[in-house]
Amino acid sequence: MDVTRGAADGRTDGGLARPAADGGQDAALDAVAVLADPVRRALYRYVAAAGREVGRAEAAEAVGVQRTLAAHHLDKLAEAGLVDVAFARPAGRGGPGAGRPAKVYRPAPGEVSVSVPRRAYDAAGMVLAEALERLRADDAVARAGREEGYAAGLPFRGRGAAGGPGSVAEQGVRLAEALRARGYEPEQVPGAPGAPDGVGEQGGAGDTYGGGAAAPVTAAPPPSGPSGPVPSAPPPSLAAPSAATSSAAPRTGPLRLRNCPFHRLAEQFPPLVCGMNLALLEGLVDGADTPAWRPRIAPSGDGCCVVLEPVPPSS
Questions:
Q1: Residue 95's pLDDT is what?
Q2: Which residues partner with 216 through β-bridges?
Q3: pLDDT value at position 148?
Q4: From CA 230, how far away is CA 222, in angstroms rounded?
Q5: How far apart are CA 95 and CA 114, in angstroms?
Q6: Rg of the Cα atoms in the chain
């Protein structure tokens, strides 16, 4: 059994998490087991997708349970090290009579991984990345990444309502599904008001590409409990604009990727791995037949180093 904890436990060696000798394996396995409860899993997914601190009442409403039940499960997630806890007053409330700060939750940093039987793919990845960097094989890595991405995108090809690959929004839905299947956790950033359809507000590296809080593209399917499906909040999706949408309404904005599937390797070998990642996503766009979108490097310090943007009509 190979059970590792990430940086949240402070047990890393050059970015590669290693099992602790004094019970770390059991602690990591227990953390994963905590998510077996469907309500707890839905709450964790909601907090993880929010990208900000979440209060108990909001989380309870999002997954359709009572606040007291949500509080119990959120605290269980905190005990397992899957979420961090802070205290804050609601916005606009402060000073005498404002009451005590309430608990809020956010995803804990680091990773929890379990492999049965024991495997060491991370170690192999580190060794191979080191060898490829020494060989200056960036071009070969990019070609291989593009081919892998193309193959991964093929199952998500589809036809739009009017034929062809579809509108920017229709392509965005398929692209988001393909990205989610690869673990990128895509979220759509609001577009610029009044921009041509499919053109989001673009900025430099590190901004939010739209000036507002991002929302997940789609929610994961709700888990089933003893009494049926556990409801979860359906975040905004990449829906095609209706005919009633005014010209000043926000249009389809960029897709930001909240998770980097290659995080540990990217920390150690940024040019090699980020270049591979960009090439992989270029291939994914081609494979999924979503030419209205294109990836570009845009490191933001949080999540993936690549953002996917709608192609301006003139491109």
A1: 57
A2: 187
A3: 97
A4: 6
A5: 46
A6: 21
Q: pLDDT value at position 251? A: 63
Tokens of 211: 């000036």
Distance CA 166, CA 160 (A): 4
Task: Say if pTM beats, i.e. exceeds, 0.70.
Answer: no
3-class secondary-structure state, position 78: helix
The partner residues of 296 in beta bridges, in order of sequence, read: 307
- Residue 222 to residues 62, 103, 259: CA-CA distances in angstroms? 11, 25, 21
Contact (Cβ atoms closer than 8 angstroms) between residue 10 and residue 16? no
Whether residue 244 has pLDDT greater than 90? no
Cβ(256)–Cβ(307) below 8 Å: yes
User: How far is the C-alpha of 311 from the C-alpha of 19, rounded, in Å?
Assistant: 45
Query: Pick the residue with more confidence: 212 or 104?
Result: 104
DSSP secondary structure code for residue 101 in this structure: P
In this model, does residue 218 exceed pLDDT 50? no
Task: Return the beta strands (E) in 50-197 as ranges.
Answer: 54-55, 83-88, 102-107, 112-115, 186-188
Spell out the residues 6+ positions from residue 216 whose beta carbon is closer than 8 angstroms to its own.
Answer: 49, 185, 186, 187, 188, 235, 236
